Structure formats: C-alpha cells, structure tokens
C-alpha cells in the first residue's frame, strides 16, 4: 500500500470504501486490435500493458486481492496460433514483470487447470508463484484455463472425500476451503470491459454479493482513470447483502 488517506481522497476515494477483492474480465483485446487494423496478438499485448497499470494501482491503493481472467476453459477453442501467442505472452509477462511485482510485495497465484498448458508456461507460472509466495502485499490471482463450474465440482468432490474419511457430510466451510480462492475475501467488485454484460463462468460462487461494473471500453483502453471511475462508482453503492442499510431503516 502506497497511498495515504489524503492521497486516496485526491483520487475521490476513501480507505473504508476500497473493495477488498476486485475481479476483472479483461474482454475486447481482439476487437481493439481489429478496430485498428492490427493483428489480434497486438490487442493481447496492449492488454498486458493495461493490466500492468491496474495491478500497480490496486497494490498502491491497498486492494487486498485482484483476480483477473486471462484464459478461460472455453478459450481452448481458439485457433492454435492465438493460443500460442497467449502462451508466449504469459511466459514473457512473468519474465519481464516479476521483478517489479516482487518488489511491490505482490503475491502471485494461478487459479485453474494449469497442467493443460505446455511445460514452459507451467514452469514460468510456478516460478512466479514460488518466488512471490511469502509476499504480503496485493494477492494477484491469474485465472488460467479456469472455469467456475469445474472449480465448484472439484471443490465439492474434494470436500466430500475429505468429510467421508471422517464419516460426516461436508459443510460450507469444507467446500470453501477447496475452492481455488480459499482464504480470500469474497469478491466485492466485478469489472467487465467491452460492453458484454455476462459472468461467463467466472467465480460464480465467489461473486454471490459482488457489485457488477460494466464498461463499453475494450480492455486495452481501460486505464487507471477508468479504474478510478469504477472504484468511485463502487464506493457510492449501498451494499445490503440481503439486509437493510441504516438509511433504509430510517
Ligand atoms: C479477451 O479478449 C482477452 C483474453 C482472452 C485474454 C486476456 C489476456 C490478456 C490481457 C493478456 C495476457 C495476460 C497475462 C496475465 C499475461 P478477446 O480476445 O476475447 O477479445 P474479443 O472479445 O474482442 O475477441
């Protein structure tokens, strides 16, 4: 965390209203590139640049956890060339960014079925996880070959097997302990770019009470200023979690 309360106020934010856990569906890289007459790969590259700024600001503003959707289970249907580009970008990303992330005490984890990826991608991700494992700053989760329905089934199976060994049925706590996000706060704010207003199999369980924020901008155009707009919008929402706020009661 870098910003003081006074600095946060200059951004139009207050400490108590910073979301603890932000999740982002970084959508529209391909369309961003096509609109410029560029290859889709250029869009993904620009997407990485946008992500860098959002991670920095999240870390500086004291967001506790940031979970970003980099590759869904459905993305495996894309042409092999595009998957190759994304894999190469991932390797490059971890090589280039790891020093800064580590210096800023960011703890990196991947969520999803990493084993599907080529060996060199797995190694790059695992190295980043190991190197940053003890960091106590922003918890950055990168969803890779992630699908929420598969995560839920997996957690249900693991929790049932563990409970059965003890001769009991699994509890909610058992189930949650087997999600990839175990130990993290529930998602407070979900952002999706590119005008699509869907959840697309992302963190279905963890989003139970999340505030949703959609913008028409393509992901590479989602700057720090745009992130600030989303955070200010979030700060202005009345969160009831199914109950009543003090104002409702008055
Ligand atoms: C959606 O755009 C984006 C993705 C499928 C990948 C997101 C990846 C990055 C931001 C870069 C890689 C990430 C890391 C962490 C190195 P799209 O291709 O679906 O765009 P479209 O909907 O316009 O086709």
Overview of the structural elements:
The chain has 250 residues and is an alpha/beta fold. The protein has one domain: 3-Layer(aba) Sandwich (Undecaprenyl pyrophosphate synthetase). Helices cover 45% and strands 14% of the residues. It contains nine helices and six strands, in the order αβααβαβαβααββαα. Strands 3-4-2-1-5-6 form a six-stranded parallel sheet, sandwiched between helices. Helix 3 runs parallel beside helix 4. The longest helix is centred in the middle third of the chain and has 24 residues. The chain is globular. It binds farnesyl diphosphate. Farnesyl diphosphate (FPP) binds next to helix 2, helix 3 and helix 4. Farnesyl diphosphate binds next to helix 2, helix 3 and helix 4.
Instruction: Tell me, briefly, the overall form.
Output: globular
What is the end-to-end distance? 36 Å
CATH fold description:
Undecaprenyl pyrophosphate synthetase
The radius of gyration is: 19 Å
What is the ordering of alpha helices and beta strands? HEHHEHEHEHHEEHH
Count of β-strands: 6
Structural class: alpha/beta
Look at the structure and name the CATH superfamily: Decaprenyl diphosphate synthase-like
Q: Low-confidence stretches at least 5 residues in length (pLDDT < 50)? A: none
Largest sheet: 6 strands, parallel
| Widest sheet: strand ordering | 3-4-2-1-5-6
**Average pLDDT figure:** 96
What is bound: which ligands?
A: farnesyl diphosphate
Q: What is the assembly state of the chains in this entry?
A: single chain
* Total number of domains: 1
């Amino acid at each position: 965390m870098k910003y003081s309360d006074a600095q946060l106020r200059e951004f139009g934010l207050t400490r108590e209203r910073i979301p603890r856990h932000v999740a982002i569906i970084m959508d529209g890289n391909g369309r961003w590139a096509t609109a410029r007459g560029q290859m889709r790969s250029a869009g993904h590259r620009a997407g990485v640049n946008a992500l860098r700024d959002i991670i920095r600001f999240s870390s500086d503003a004291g967001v506790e956890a940031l979970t970003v959707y980099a590759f869904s289970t459905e993305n495996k249907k894309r042409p092999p060339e595009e998957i190759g580009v994304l894999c190469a970008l991932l390797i490059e990303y971890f090589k280039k960014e790891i020093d800064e992330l580590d210096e800023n005490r960011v703890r990196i984890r991947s969520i999803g079925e990493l084993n599907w990826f080529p060996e060199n991608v797995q190694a790059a991700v695992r190295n980043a996880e190991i190197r940053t494992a003890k960091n106590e700053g922003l918890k950055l989760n990168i969803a890779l070959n992630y699908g929420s329905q598969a995560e839920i089934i997996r957690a249900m199976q693991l929790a049932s097997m563990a409970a059965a060994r003890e001769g009991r049925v699994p509890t909610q706590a058992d189930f949650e302990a087997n999600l990839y996000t175990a130990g993290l706060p529930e998602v407070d704010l979900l952002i999706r770019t590119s005008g699509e207003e869907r959840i697309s199999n992302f963190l279905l369980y963890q989003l139970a009470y999340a505030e949703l924020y959609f913008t028409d901008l393509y992901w590479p155009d989602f700057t720090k200023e745009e992130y600030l707009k989303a955070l200010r919008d979030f700060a202005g929402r009345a969160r009831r979690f199914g109950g009543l706020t003090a104002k409702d009661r008055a």
